[in-house]
Structure formats: structure tokens, C-alpha cells
């Protein structure tokens, strides 16, 4: 497997996480709970993150082992929860992930991608 493909997966994860931040900029929890389009946009981007994480785990298992700081199983599990039971997803959980976990994930992805770009 090529490094370019790995970087593409990481880039997709980073793009989806960034989009969540843009979609929720200036939106409070009450507005989020009342805006189905925001909920679906966040859910779709979390699904994309989880799908990219699953592909990395399948195609680059050594990368996953080398980077345990990234929540690989959490991302994949939440993707599965969304795709298998979207209408049962608790909005509070979706909001909390978008507000707390996604910004942290962006920092981790920046760090990993920078580290890889340096060739270390």
C-alpha cells in the first residue's frame, strides 16, 4: 500500500472533521437540536471519519499500532452506530462528540500528518 493512499485517508478524515467545525460555527446546542440539516451534516461527516479510520485499519494496520493516540475503534464504532441506527442516535451524544472529540481529533491528525510529512 502506498503512502499517498494513507495520506489521502488521513486528509479525508481531517476534511470531514474541519467541516463539522464549520457547520457548527456560531450554533449553540439548542439550535443544533432544532436543525435537522446540521444534525445530518455532522452525522455524515462522522460516518466519513469512521469509514476512513476503518480503511486505514484494514490497509495499514501497522500505522494504527504506531499511532494509538488516535481513537481508531471509537471512530469506527460510532460510524457503525450511525449507519446501522441513525434514527436512534442520541442528539446529545452527537453534539458532545462534535464539540469535544472532533477538535481533539483535528489536533491529533495535524500532528500525525506533520510527523509523516517530516519523514520521521
What does this structure look like?
The chain is an all-alpha fold and 120 residues long. It has one domain (3-118). 82% of the residues lie in helices and 0% in strands. It has helices spanning 3-24, 29-33, 36-59, 61-66, 72-85, 91-118. Helix 1 (3-24) packs antiparallel against helix 3. The chain is globular. The relative contact order is 0.17.
One letter per element, helices H and strands E, the order comes to HHHHHH
| Multimeric state | single chain
Shape: globular
Helical fraction: over 70%
Task: Note the gap between the termini.
Answer: 18 Å
Uncertain runs are none
The gyration radius over C-alpha positions equals 15 Å
Estimate what percentage of residues fall within beta strands.
under 5%
Q: What would you call the structural class?
A: mainly alpha
Tell me the total number of β-strands: 0
As for the number of domains, it is 1
The average pLDDT score comes to 90
Helix run count: 6
User: How many strands, which pairing sense, and closed or not: the largest β-sheet?
Assistant: none
Properties at a glance:
single chain, 120 residues, mainly alpha, 6 helices
Brief digest:
By secondary structure, this protein is mostly helical. The chain is built from six helices and no strands.
Secondary structure layout plus pairing:
Elements: H1 3-24, H2 29-33, H3 36-59, H4 61-66, H5 72-85, H6 91-118
Helix pairs in contact: 1-3, 1-6, 3-5
Amino acid at each position: 500500500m502506498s503512502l499517498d493512499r494513507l495520506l489521502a485517508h488521513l486528509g479525508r478524515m481531517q476534511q470531514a472533521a474541519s467541516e463539522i467545525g464549520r457547520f457548527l460555527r456560531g450554533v449553540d446546542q439548542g439550535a443544533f437540536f432544532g436543525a435537522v440539516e446540521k444534525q445530518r451534516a455532522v452525522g455524515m461527516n462522522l460516518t466519513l471519519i469512521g469509514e476512513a479510520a476503518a480503511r486505514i485499519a484494514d490497509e495499514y494496520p501497522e500505522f494504527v499500532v504506531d499511532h494509538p493516540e488516535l481513537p481508531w475503534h471509537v471512530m469506527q464504532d460510532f460510524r457503525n452506530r450511525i449507519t446501522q441506527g441513525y434514527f436512534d442516535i442520541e442528539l446529545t451524544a452527537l453534539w458532545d462528540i462534535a464539540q469535544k472529540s472532533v477538535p481533539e481529533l483535528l489536533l491529533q491528525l495535524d500532528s500525525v500528518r506533520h510527523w509523516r510529512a517530516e519523514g520521521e
